């Protein structure tokens, strides 16, 4: 989390929407062989926890439920050039959105894992414009059963929410507007939109 409090947000609905919109992140935890990270789809329960799954062969799978873990979900980011500010004297920086979630992890039962897989598929299939949505019913039962046995679902109880929305809030309205315009022109539409919506 960025040390400057101006880049933080206590808007829980905003943080939940970030998890839902991005839907993918990194899980960090300590193992006997040192720290490890896994890249996973993530689903929020909406009541203070997130769920994810790991292949049973993943280095974290055997150890992650034995202590705290850290989840990181990264939103849009982009380099900010000093030439975009109306006045000279600025230095390069980076605007970005990220959310750190920390807490204990527990293993899920197979029913919870199947519900998690369904939730991920439903969310992502709903974002595809054309064609009939995939469901687990499309998979032969024996193949589905084999898949379920090869992975484990986990739930992280979020005890610390550490968001960073670094969107030039420490700059003047004129400077923020100029940077947002420049980022939009460079193709960073999501970041520019967030700057205009949040950095007021």
Automatic annotation (TrEMBL):
Spans through the membrane: none
PANTHER family per record: PROTEASE SYNTHASE AND SPORULATION PROTEIN PAI 2
Protein's name according to its UniProt entry: FMN-binding negative transcriptional regulator
Protein source organism: Croceibacterium salegens
Phylogenetic placement of the source organism: Bacteria, Pseudomonadati, Pseudomonadota, Alphaproteobacteria, Sphingomonadales
